Structure formats: structure tokens, C-alpha cells
Here is the input.
Amino acid sequence: MHDFADVELPAGSFARLAQLCAADTRFPKDLQDWEARVSHDTEAAHRGGHPSQPMRIDPDRFERWCHTFEVPPCLDSFRAYCIIHRLPRGHHHYGPTALDSEAGPLEP
Here is the structure.
């Protein structure tokens, strides 16, 4: 998988993201591990013929997204957030506001 390809965090944001995902033992333990994961995924994407665009992530927006969709902040939910964030508007199941904190799960 190359879900974290070209993911950029604003300066100093890794600590905030790590704090949010502290309960997940699989989350990278430090910035160096995080950057290695992003680099690995970016290289894998390019080798596989899937060039990616840089994607800037705001940890606070990720936290609101987790709260909205009632998922714990962890590596898997961050992966899902990145996948949805990368999709063109209107190409995901939750509609054009899936990234907004006001969005919610589909009604049964």
C-alpha cells in the first residue's frame, strides 16, 4: 500500500498527530519513523506507476473527522482519512463534505 505517499504535516504537527494516536502501538514512534514510512510509500507509489501529489494534513481536522465518524484516532483511521482526502470531491461515498467536521455517517 502507498496510502501515506507524499503526505505532508505542517511544521511541528507530528507531535500532535502522535498524541492523538498514542493508544495505537503501531503508530510510528517518532518523526524519523514517520518520515521513513512516508518516503517508503512515496517510492512504492512511483515504482508502481502511481505518482502522487503532495497532500498537506491538519491533525486537528483529522481529530474532528474521527469524532464525526466515531472512530478512534489511530493509524488505520488516519490511513482512511488520507485515502478519502486524496479522492476528488464527489468521488467518495459520504458525499462532497466527507472531510468537513459537519459531515456524518450515512443513515441506515
About this structure: The first strand starts at residue 7 and ends at 8. Residues 7-86 form one domain.
